[in-house]
């Protein structure tokens, strides 16, 4: 079976599409394509996120909303172009593709670990009917809701896929492994075995990764992100500021420190500090940027403490996601 997978994350930077073949328990990626988000689309989603947050997650105001409809249509057309680019760059015929799996764009995520005593919910926009019409392929979507309705977190969704990848690694002697994804929010999947020999797979969000570095860089330079750590390298990690950030920037609805919360857990940019202007004013832009970049790496290091003692600790760490392209974050994690 051959499928197309489409993902757009909270960094709001691009549509990523992959063509994947399934043969029994084996998974093989056949091609990949990426199309960047136009600035107008990114700004549109940021506006919608703010509006939904102002409405407390109630999306009734979006019915018949022309602005939402326009953003959704532009998004769907971009995804369709990414799928077309993916297929045109491969030897696979469209008739041989079983379906598109489409995550959609998250507008808000309020899972049980963050919601506390409040009703949890998750919101993604994905006009599956429109995408099916544009591409001529069946579309499978709305992956998170079922898990949430059955008591799960709705995120991260990757650990099961990571387990398939780990099967190949295991044959090469690379096992147990931890998959560390550095997106807007960082998440980890641990594929290992228990001390009694039983296989074990866990996954949870570690906390914000690119979120604050991107925010500070956009606000102070106009750049979309701190490319290659070019701005952060001019600052220094301030221990006092690091402690303040760790204690304050990622909280649950009940006021718990997200970094210190036991898994299972997941989060969302709407649950992070709205701005770091006060810290920048006190410690300077470059020092604040450098410190949040260190915090991103430290969040992964700290989250390893949640691996149960009855599970064999990973001997290999697979780092992926755009955040690790920043050499400051990468070297910080290696140093930890």
Give an overview of the whole structure:
This protein is α/β, with parallel strands linked by helices and 336 residues long. It has two domains: 2-149, Nucleotidyltransferase, domain 5; 159-335, Nucleotidyltransferase, domain 5. Helix content is 38%, strand content 23%. The strands form three sheets. The protein has a five-stranded mixed beta sheet with strand order 3-2-1-4-7, sandwiched between helices. Strands 10-9-8-11 form a four-stranded mixed beta sheet. A hairpin with a 5-residue loop joins β9 and β10. α10 crosses α11. It is globular and about 60 Å long.
Key descriptive features of the protein:
336 residues, Nucleotidyltransferase, domain 5, 2 domains, 11 strands, single chain, five-stranded mixed beta sheet
Structural class by sheet pairing and helices: alpha/beta
Q: Largest sheet at a glance?
A: 5 strands, mixed
Shape field: globular
Number of domains: 2
* CATH architecture descriptor name of the largest domain: 2-Layer Sandwich
Can you tell me the residue ranges where pLDDT is under 50 for at least 5 consecutive residues? none
Overall average pLDDT: 96
Task: Assign the CATH superfamily of the largest domain.
Answer: ATPase, nucleotide binding domain
Q: What proportion strand?
A: 15-25%
Order of helices and strands: EEEHHEEHEHEHHEEEHHHHEH
């Amino acid at each position: 079976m051959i499928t197309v997978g489409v993902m757009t994350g909270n960094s709001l930077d691009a549509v990523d599409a992959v063509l994947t073949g399934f043969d029994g328990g084996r998974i093989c990626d056949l091609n990949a394509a990426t199309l960047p988000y136009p600035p107008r689309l990114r700004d549109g989603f940021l506006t919608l996120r703010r509006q939904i947050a102002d409405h407390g997650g109630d999306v009734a105001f979006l019915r018949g909303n022309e602005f939402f409809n326009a953003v959704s249509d532009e998004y769907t057309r971009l995804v369709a172009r990414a799928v077309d680019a993916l297929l045109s760059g491969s030897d696979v015929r469209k008739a041989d593709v079983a379906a598109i799996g489409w995550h959609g764009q998250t507008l808000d995520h309020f899972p049980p670990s963050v919601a506390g005593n409040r009703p949890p919910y998750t919101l993604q926009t994905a006009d599956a009917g429109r995408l099916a019409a544009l591409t001529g392929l069946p579309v499978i979507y709305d992956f998170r809701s079922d898990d949430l309705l059955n008591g799960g977190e709705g995120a991260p969704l990757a650990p099961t896929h990571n387990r398939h990848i780990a099967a190949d690694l295991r044959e090469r002697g690379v096992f147990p492994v931890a998959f560390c994804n550095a997106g807007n929010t960082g998440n980890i999947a641990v594929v290992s075995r228990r001390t009694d020999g039983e296989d074990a797979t866990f996954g949870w969000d570690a906390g914000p990764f690119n979120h604050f570095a991107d925010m500070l860089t956009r606000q102070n330079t106009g750049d979309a992100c701190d490319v290659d750590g070019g701005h952060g390298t001019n600052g220094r990690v301030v221990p006092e500021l690091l402690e303040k950030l760790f204690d304050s920037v990622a909280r649950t609805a009940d006021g718990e420190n997200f970094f210190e919360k036991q898994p299972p857990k997941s989060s969302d940019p709407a649950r992070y500090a709205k701005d770091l202007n006060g810290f920048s004013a006190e410690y300077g832009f470059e020092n604040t940027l450098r410190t949040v970049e260190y915090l991103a790496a430290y969040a992964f290091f700290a989250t390893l403490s949640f691996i149960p003692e009855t599970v064999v600790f990973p001997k290999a760490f697979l780092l992926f996601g755009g955040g690790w392209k920043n050499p400051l974050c990468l070297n910080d994690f290696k140093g930890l």
